[in-house]
Amino acid sequence: MLSKAKIKYINSLQQKKYRQKEQLFIVEGEKIIAEVLSQDVFKVHSIYATDIWLNKNMTFAAQYTGILTTISVAELKKISTLKTPNQVLVLLEIPKGNISSNNPDQSFNLVLENIQDPGNMGTIIRIADWFGVENIFCSKGCVDCYNPKVIQATMGSFLRVPIQYTDLEVLFQKHTELPIYGAVLGGTNLQQSRLKTPSFLLIGNEGKGLSEATQQLITEGITIPKFGGAESLNAAVATGILCAAFRQ
Amino acid sequence: MLSKAKIKYINSLQQKKYRQKEQLFIVEGEKIIAEVLSQDVFKVHSIYATDIWLNKNMTFAAQYTGILTTISVAELKKISTLKTPNQVLVLLEIPKGNISSNNPDQSFNLVLENIQDPGNMGTIIRIADWFGVENIFCSKGCVDCYNPKVIQATMGSFLRVPIQYTDLEVLFQKHTELPIYGAVLGGTNLQQSRLKTPSFLLIGNEGKGLSEATQQLITEGITIPKFGGAESLNAAVATGILCAAFRQ
User: Fold this and answer.
1) Is the ipTM, as predicted for this complex, more than 0.90?
2) B9: closest CA among B37, B56, B48?
3) Residues A240, B240: C-beta atoms closer than 8 Å
4) Which of B93, B113, B148 is where one domain is finished?
5) Model-wide pTM > 0.90
6) Under an 8 A CB cutoff, do B241 and A236 touch?
């Protein structure tokens, strides 16, 4: 059974300010949660599951008795962020300080400036996971990576890629030896560029691209050549194409 | 002024069955509509615009007096499919028969099997436009390309890429000389494959990939190499990476 207060509390975590206050975020869906319960980066705070999920996941359930609440499908609907709720919802703790990240000087680092759309952010995290990106650095203007829509769009990849929010200029000042590639219009043709890692790959905002200030910081501007009429590519698609080129 | 009946009529076009009955679809937003009004593939059926739009677009407005209705922002909200309606909504006629397409035997043809998500479909059309794809062929199981969410996600690219719905097996039988590349798991590594055009590039459903039956039809299975933990890439992202590889 879920009290009205508990429903309100869980719903409040859809907003960044309450996630920050409570240091908790929502994860949903059987598939992602099977992964969530077999990792140890994020501590499980509580589990809300239907009988259907419990019957299928007795082993997991046994480990979490103290923090597991059985709920009805109707109750799940009240706390879910999904159109079609999927048997189980988990609250995870936001790690204190930075998640243990890889040394940028030895890594393929993806850097995001003011990515706003949660779907794009989640898809980019999934791309980073596919291509073995070792760190994601986000400007403070990026959407919160613990937004439920971001988490869902990662398809579980948020469990594997360390993500940090930071001042980009300070970041680059700490690693002056690394090349900083930036996705821009009118840069070096991707096919002619010699991409190498360790390095930073910088992706800008969906509508505006990289800010003027940040463009000053890049060592090489890269452009995906265009053969048709579209004005631009979606930010996540561009990230995918560039990450693939780095791994070539 | 908009009557209740007119509001209901326009709203009904959010559903495929009414779009097919009326042979009309919705396009919204100042930027796309500026492009819409300067092309002649799709005939303009009617325009619903606020005073703000009218004042900025007197030249266009003069050409369309008979089919232009001035509406308030509140009225626009009632007919819009967007969270933040944007000054103008246009109904376009769905072309009779197939849109004049390019000869597949001389084209880079993108073929979609059961792409379900409107956002993905729109993003794929935008990618196709960027990379100069000359035809898009969709299986009957794909989401309708005149769905308002698809149209919005194309960012205007639906105006430039010919899209047809067809039986894929019949399509391939008509063009037996062309290679059929398919995005699959466990195929030729993209980096080792020799992609050439004219050809077909086949992309499958978001969750399931290409169907068994369709996999039988491909001449070469292509796989984007993976370096990390993600189970898969988003269908639109995979399409972008493969199109970029074709144009290399």
Assistant:
1) yes
2) B48
3) yes
4) B93
5) yes
6) no
